Fold this protein.
Amino acid sequence: MEHYTMNLTLKVWKQKNTASKGRFETFEVKDISSEMSFLEMFDVLNERLINEGKDPIAFDHDCREGICGMCSMYINGRPHGPWHGTTTCQLHMRAFKDGDTIVVEPWRANAFPVIKDLMVDRSAFDRIIQAGGYISVNTGNAVDGNTIPVERDQAERSFAAAACIGCGACVAACKNSSAMLFTAAKVSHLALLPQGDPERKTRALNMIAQMDKEGFGSCTNTGACEAVCPKEISIAYIAQLNSEFIRGAVLQHEENE
Amino acid sequence: MLNSKTPSGPLEKKWKNYKDHCKLVNPANKRKLEVIVIGTGLAGASAAATLAELGYKVKSFCFQDSPRRAHSIAAQGGINAAKNYQNDGDSVYRLFYDTIKGGDYRSRESNTYRLAEVSANIIDQCVAQGVPFAREYGGLLSNRSFGGVQVQRTFYAAGQTGQQLLIGAYQALERQIALGAVEMYSRHEMLDIVVIDGKARGVIVRNLITGELERHFGHAVVLCSGGYGNVFYLSTNAMGSNVTAAWKAHKRGAYFGNPCYTQIHPTCIPVTGDHQSKLTLMSESLRNDGRIWVPKNKGDNRKGNAIPEEERDYYLERRYPAFGNLVPRDVASRAAKERCDAGYGVGTSKQAVFLDFSDAIKRYGKIECSKLGNHNPTDEEVRHHGMEVVKEKYGNLFDMYEKITGENPYEVPMRIYPAVHYTMGGLWVDYELMTTVPGLYALGECNFSDHGANRLGASALMQGLADGYFVIPYTIGNYLADEIRTPPIPTSHPAFEEAEKGVTNKINSLMNIKGAQTAESFHKRLGKIMWDKCGMARNAAGLKEAIQEIRALREEFWKDLRIPGGIDEMNPELDKAQRVSDFMELGELICIDALNREESCGGHFREEYQTSEGEALRNDEKFLNVSAWQYKDGKEWELHKEELIFEEVKPTQRSYK
């Protein structure tokens, strides 16, 4: 791989806290190596800003391996930037060329208020999980792991949904700020396994109710969520969620009859 | 001598005996007892959820924005369990034995045996929670091999085992939060332990969004705050992984066990330049199929796939024929360093070796073609089908490698080099996982653990969940049974006042330095000292220098640190400065411990003590013990020892040949 260096112009969202109004600020960065990760480019910029006596840019990040789901930059109009199936931390500077201007914003959604600069509050996702994204089994109850065989394809489809890292890119990409792909991934992960069956009837209903309560929008099937998901979670899981929701609603209706 | 409080009786009966006789707390009293859990990784989330299920009032804290993000999530390869589903001779005893041997006979037999014993329950628990483990076509759970072992006992979920297990524990935790049994505090960092009448009674935490300090009372405090690998700056740990919670506990009286036992993982993506902020692991599971080699000729600059077979040195297979590429991590790392130091390294930095899948692609390709009835396939057909299999097994790791390096590992061999990955050392705990401060527990990587001087692959997940799901629920009851008459202590108690004041003063002192250098730059310099002089190989002269250099650096830090922004706001630079200040103190202790341990064992390799073949040479006469360091007011540490008694296993020279 050929390495090169580049000079870039960054337009970055700066916002002191949730209550204050934000604005774009422009920064020039020089001699950025194509081997750096996108966040390492921000590290270099922040070190310089501190040395110049200025405030660094606050952003969320932790594992830098594309799995913790903490990093969350909206880069040139796309959550996590230009590479398909990639988190911000795994985006590398060879995606850009000398002289580029890069615009970086936080996730934008009413349910994700900005904490500072590029950091947002995603606790709404935790509350959606609290509404039913689990199997009610206390420690110590379990039978032998091989007691219930699970069809391999089914297990793999469940796994592909469980690959969701809860980063919120799906919400950021959606013009309605819908959390349907996130919710669908969790509901499908559990619905596709026999262990998830006993609570199937209420899980989707409760999680969707919580999603609405948090202020996420509705799904209009534009597919933007799937296009930007770093774990490439398929929009087909939203169909699964809808069917789980209808199934739950019908069963509940029958019970009330 | 420290007393580990190991129960008497035969090894295989100890845990059962303990459980049969430990004190219990009745459900009505559990509701009155409060437990604080710090950290939400596998150990923390599983402990918080399980203790809440039992009926205790739990408060859980993490510095990340959600408990689901703790660094356990990044574990890739798998989790060990002695299920013997493969019928290949596995048993609780073998898992115990492999772990003791892998740890170079520096762990406590009773703890390691208990770990092996509960390992099977972990898999059952995770399956019940909906963890989507890999399965065979018959619908049953699948296994693979890991290093230092000759059976297949590793359960996995593609290259995301940590994520799937953590999500299982996180879901259990969220369920308890929904039920009101756990109060969750995310974006909170623990900055001190409150000790009243010699017992841990609470914590001081900082709300990272507002900067406010908070006081929380607990009848007991459970630390699950992870390892300290980031003392080396570059490691496979997350950027936020830190020693602060454990270090504050140490300063409040918890002894620190075996700090010099650090694990260097052999297969990580090499450093590219000064901008490097962290290192990325390529899972040990890759050594199931990948072959490690360097060119036979020094300075061979050809691409890996252009070097013919006869000019390659598969040095692990050559040196360790019985285990080959699946030797334990410490052995594989040192062997890579040896080749690179001798001038056979590859890539621009020459600090890398090849991890090559071309043979695996051929082997799997032939099997697949044969399955399809094609017994005379072309090379192209073999390659195509072989790549499909490798992709299914390791696809996400290969993708990650390509994103980081820009090279396609299906075409050219991966370049890899060892990197800091895990710390076997940590807070000293007894059989009940209690530190030397009564009521203060340490679980998972933050304790000095069951892994001795070297941890085997796929055992960290096992230990975190064993501690959280199956050990602490019993052992904490044994302590709390005597606390049922203790009413909650108001946080206006002078001990809370004093602790909070100490934290405030430290934050003010850091902010008031107003020097010129960033916390990041100090951290990098500390890491370089640690890696150069206390890394894969250590010697007395280097360690003495390192101690002096760290002291000087610490002095400079306290004179010339610059933190932008204010105290009463989200200020990641202030958070980082506090963590770095603790790493600076820990770094010195690691070097002191490494200097004191005049032997080589597992991940601790002192150049002065090696066999004629360059293997670690233990000194069981002098060092068949745990070093547990007591903090003495910043000036020095006092060394205490726990004798390691081997009743079941006889320590021998470890051999993987």
